[in-house]
Design brief:
Layout: H1 4-9, E1 16-19, E2 25-30, H2 36-45, H3 48-54, H4 61-69, E3 76-83, E4 89-96, H5 101-109, E5 118-125, H6 134-148, E6 153-156, E7 160-161, H7 165-173, E8 177-183, E9 189-196
Parallel strand pairs: 5-6
Antiparallel strand pairs: 1-2, 2-3, 3-4, 4-5, 6-9, 7-9, 8-9
Helix pairs in contact: 2-4
The structure holds coenzyme A (COA).
Amino acid sequence: MLTLTEVADDPLTLTRRLALNDASDVVFRPLVRTDADRLAGFLVGLSPETRRLSMFDGYDLATAQELCDAIARYDKLRLVLEEVPSGRIVGLLEFSLDLHPEDIARYRGAGIHLAPTDCRFGPTLADDYQGRGVGTQVFPLVTDVARRFGKKRVILWGGVLADNPRAIRYYQKNGFHSAGSFTGADGVRSLDMILDLDSLQG
Ligand SMILES: CC(C)(COP(=O)(O)OP(=O)(O)OC[C@H]1O[C@@H](n2cnc3c(N)ncnc32)[C@H](O)[C@@H]1OP(=O)(O)O)[C@@H](O)C(=O)NCCC(=O)NCCS
């Protein structure tokens, strides 16, 4: 089973080149410590609507640097999609390998008992990469990463906003099922969704 330290020491172990349906290529790889400027470019470029849907802590170089500094220091695994040949980061795919007590309690309320073999996942694509099927094309790589970390199920990191129909459809078509809903401190309703990796073919 892979560890975060192994990935940080050898990012190539999770690096894959992916040919997209439109004939362009992207590289799927772990975030590395030297990515801060490029990751900042990604965050700065996100539209207000994408920021509303994805909710990062910030959208600047300081946030990007924090994410790079966090590599292998906590339970987070961040992967990026890199456009070929520009090298521009066009997607950030985040895993949290440990569960949050609030998630455990909320899922228990829905009759689902989360376990250490479950993880949290959240994807964000650059605006010009959304709605082109890229998230779905990269999804088998995402599930492969989860499996290599010994995970059996994937839940949504922070849920998905109830008024984000594209993301909800995206999760459904990639095998996630509804697991209840909740209202955040800001009064906004979100949905919980869970994917059983054993339910996927291949
Ligand atoms: C969510 C996200 C990762 C999905 O990746 P993607 O590449 O855009 O998704 P795909 O194109 O593979 O699939 C989207 C599906 O939703 C459908 N869709 C698009 N807009 C929709 C809408 N308004 N209502 C319902 N379905 C919609 C698409 O038709 C497609 O389904 P189909 O293949 O059955 O036709 C990406 O859109 C994104 O980064 N969005 C902004 C940030 C975000 O919302 N992150 C998730 C936070 S929980």
